[in-house]
Amino acid sequence: MSKIVDTFIAPPCHQEIEILYQDEHLILINKPSGLLSLSGKNPQNIDSVHYRLAKQFTECTLVHRLDFGTSGLMLIARYKAINVALCQQFSQRSVKKVYSALLCGHLKQDEGIIDAPIAKDPTLFPRMLISSEGKSARSHYQVIERFYKKLENGNKLPLTRVTLSPETGRTHQLRIHCQYLGHPILGCDLYGGLLDYVQTTRLMLHASELQFTHPISQEKITAHNKSPF
């Protein structure tokens, strides 16, 4: 089997990480779109959420990741024991995650569940694909509004604003599930959201809500972060 080579080089991200909350145990941030969660093997991809935060919080570790193009809420552990406790909540699916997204076209149904297993695409790294041999994956969607975006050429682009709630946490899950639904996320370079006649500056996917239990205080925390689009 041929070795997979990752040729992606991330362009510079000039946006700052916004720290929304911090205590001696954890940090809650607003990640900008266009910033890696974790530094890549290529030295040109050293800039990342972890790389930046580790300068200030030397023992911090990522509890979960957001895709390069996705913005929004991320939870960071300040030391190993907290990372273990928070990762357990994610693996037990007791953490609730809600995303805001703009999808291409108008969805017919106001809400629904996408239940489609996901596997790695062996021929098109880093893409994933829907496969009966993949890992189970479920996502909920809820339509917020259907509207038309007026383009420079005078045409109107149909878009649907939705909230997406993943039950599982597979790689690229929301992006490929929306493609499977027939309405890819606007600005998605891997799953059909790049339209020749529309200029998009980013992936229109934002982690807007995160609910978890503080491992020390046992307080139920619900964080909200408004979508920038």
Automatic annotation (TrEMBL):
The answer to whether keyword Isomerase applies is: yes
UniProt cross-references to InterPro entries, sorted A to Z: PsdUridine_synth_cat_dom_sf, PsdUridine_synth_RluA-like_CS, PsdUridine_synth_RsuA/RluA, RluA_PseudoU_synthase
**Key words of the record:** Isomerase, Lyase
Could you give a single Gene Ontology term from the biological process aspect?
A: enzyme-directed rRNA pseudouridine synthesis
Domain of life of the source: Bacteria
Domain Pseudouridine synthase RsuA/RluA-like, first and last residues per copy = 25-179
According to the UniProt entry, what is the EC number of this protein?
4.2.1.70, 5.4.99.12
- Show the SUPFAM superfamilies listed in the entry: Pseudouridine synthase
Which Pfam families did the record assign? PseudoU_synth_2
One of the record's GO molecular function terms: RNA binding
Determine if Cell division is one of this entry's keywords.
no
The protein's name: Ribosomal large subunit pseudouridine synthase A
UniProt lineage: Bacteria, Pseudomonadati, Pseudomonadota, Gammaproteobacteria, Enterobacterales
